[in-house]
Amino acid sequence: MSYNSPNSDPSSTGRRSPGLLPLALVGLLFGLAMAVAGFLIGRAVAATPPGAEPALAQAATATALLPTPSPAATLAPTEPPPATVTTAPTDAPAATPAPTEMPTELPPTASPTVEVIIGGDSPLAEADLATFYEAWNLIAEQYDGPLPPTDELMESAIAGSLEALGDDYTRYVSPEVAARTRQDMEGAVEGIGAMVQENDEGLFEIVRPIDGQPADLAGLRAGDVLIEVDGQSVLEIDFDEVILMVRGPAGTTVNLKVMREGEPEPLAFSIVRARFEVAVVEYEMLPAEMTGGAAIGYIRLTEFGATAEEKLLEALAALLPQQPVGLILDLRDNPGGYLDQSVAVADAFLPAGVALFERNIRGLDETFSTDDGDAAEEIPLVVLVNAGSASASEIVAGAIQDRGRAVLVGETTFGKGSVQQIHTLADGGELRVTVARWYTPNNHTIQDEGITPDIEVETPEDLGGPEDGQLMRAVEYILNGQ
User: Fold this and answer.
1) Phi, psi of 277 (to 5 degrees)
2) How far is Cα 345 from Cα 347, in angstroms, rounded to an integer?
3) What is the 3-state secondary structure (H, E, C) of 68-135?
4) pLDDT at position 184
5) pTM of the model
6) What is the pLDDT of residues 129-184, one digit of tens each?
7) Is 151 among the residues known to form the active site?
8) Measured in Å, how far apart are the chain's first and last C-alpha atoms?
């Protein structure tokens, strides 16, 4: 297998208002300069070890609140659909699940001490910032209300300026959210246990409660839209901030109010947060009652964190010696993660050939390839996908489909075809920058379109078991070849 991984860097800080406007401006210049420069079925579970990196599905992806990954964005290495799981300190894969952002992303870069230099290509090179000073001096002198701390002002200025790009995946993540995301990736998380995403209306939507966790036990369902947390409306609050409100220490209670299709009035839930492990890979030989006695292996990959390939290979090493007649790879509700891990996972199932192409406007034209000789290149295979499969999940599904290696069963995927580089800033926040777009082996982009499965089956309310129509259709295909 061969692939290419991008780089990164960055840094900034501040505190309080009027007299510190010059400091605020320096923070703004620094942040902007840096921007320019630079979550279950199986019987056997492998948990993410401490130190694993996220694949936040951030915003358009499912995010793990327990740990969204947001689909996560594809991180270079593959951030975050903008599904995410609600979690507490232990995030997030994202998510962002990204479906909150578990992006296809690159690993976070270091935060070296750097001199702020405005490059000639930066819009700030020709910016007259006097108007910025003028506006905030007038606010400081005349505004009838408390002024924001300097750090909040700088965060808002950076986040607001990035909106001009019109790209949901290039965004600033506050230090609090960034720290929570990194904690989620350590494996053990605290929260309500649900995959969430930012839907098309910009609202906080439950993608799927995690089986047996507080959200599931309380009765939350896929499709529920959160409108209130502990009595406070969240309709006008940033998605990442809502995640922080829902997450919290194990044993504490959070009161949620949701809108549910078919219900005329909002539904209220009081949920006690819990601590649990975030599984990267779950695997088993499916029960004989589901397969008619045939030996069929099942592997569910929940995110493309730093240990995705390692855990997948462990699962294959445990299942293949049992001589299954076929394998089912479940990528449903997987918001994405690292690009290099998506290529490595695809490589386990594919012989030599193209995994994806990566290009950008600066002349990048990179081919990521798979090699011969891997463990599961010939065994019959079916891949399960749904609308929560995003970013890195789509890379794997797209490569397998385009190259005729296996059929895809389920629903059209999320549709995230960009790669983000994560830069860790001096204030502990993160800047996620879209640095390239990726294309399937047949040169198709999936951005905003997703991947259409070969066999379309509606996603069930609960994944796994004989009531899971998608899973049972995959079993049928392995047994009958159609």
Assistant:
1) -90, 140
2) 5
3) CECCCCEECCCCCCCCEEEEECCCCCCECCCCCCCCEEEEEECCCCCCCCCCCCCHHHHCCCHHHHHH
4) 63
5) 0.72
6) 888 889 999 999 999 999 999 988 988 899 899 999 999 899 998 888 888 777 66
7) no
8) 31
Report CA Rg, the chain.
22
Amino acid 168 reads: D
Q: Tokens for 117?
A: 């230099």
Q: How far apart are CA 370 and CA 3, in angstroms?
A: 9
Between CA 147 and CA 156 the distance in angstroms is: 13
Given 416, 418, 427, 468, which residue is catalytic?
Answer: 416
What span, in angstroms and rounded, lies between the C-alpha atoms of 248 and 70?
18
Length of the chain: 482
For the chain, give the longest Cα–Cα distance.
78
Distances 158 to 319, 338, 400 between C-alpha atoms, Å: 49, 25, 39
391 is catalytic: yes
Distance of alpha carbon 103 from alpha carbon 69, whole angstroms? 7
Q: How far apart are CA 353 and CA 348, in angstroms?
A: 12
Please tell me the least confidently modeled range out of 11-20, 203-212, 269-278, 342-351: 11-20
* Amino acid identity, position 179: A
Amino acid identity, position 258: V
Burial of 275 (0-12, 13-18, 19+ CB in 10 A): middle
Whole-number Å distance between alpha carbons of 216 and 225: 15
Pairing mode of beta strands 326-330, 274-277: unpaired
Is the pLDDT at 474 greater than 80, yes or no?
A: yes
354-369: pLDDT as tens digits: 999 999 999 999 999 9
Average pLDDT of the chain is 79
Annotated catalytic residue within 17, 70, 391, 393: 391
pLDDT at position 3, please?
40
Q: DSSP letters along 337-359, please?
A: BBHHHHHHHHHHH--SEEEEEEE
Round to whole Å and give the CA distance between 149 and 319. 55
* 347 has catalytic annotation: no
193 in Cβ contact with 209 (< 8 Å): yes
Q: Mean pLDDT: which of 15-19, 241-245, 320-324, 388-392 is highest?
A: 320-324
DSSP string covering 250-290? TT-EEEEEEE-TT-SS-EEEEEE-EEEE-EEEEEEEPPHHH
Cα 420 to chain centroid distance, Å, stands at 11
Exposed e or buried b for every residue in 29-65, given b needs 16+ CB within 10 A? Answer: bbbbbbbbbbbbbbeebbbbeeebbbbbbbbbbbbbb
Of 91, 240, 347, 402, the catalytic one is: 402
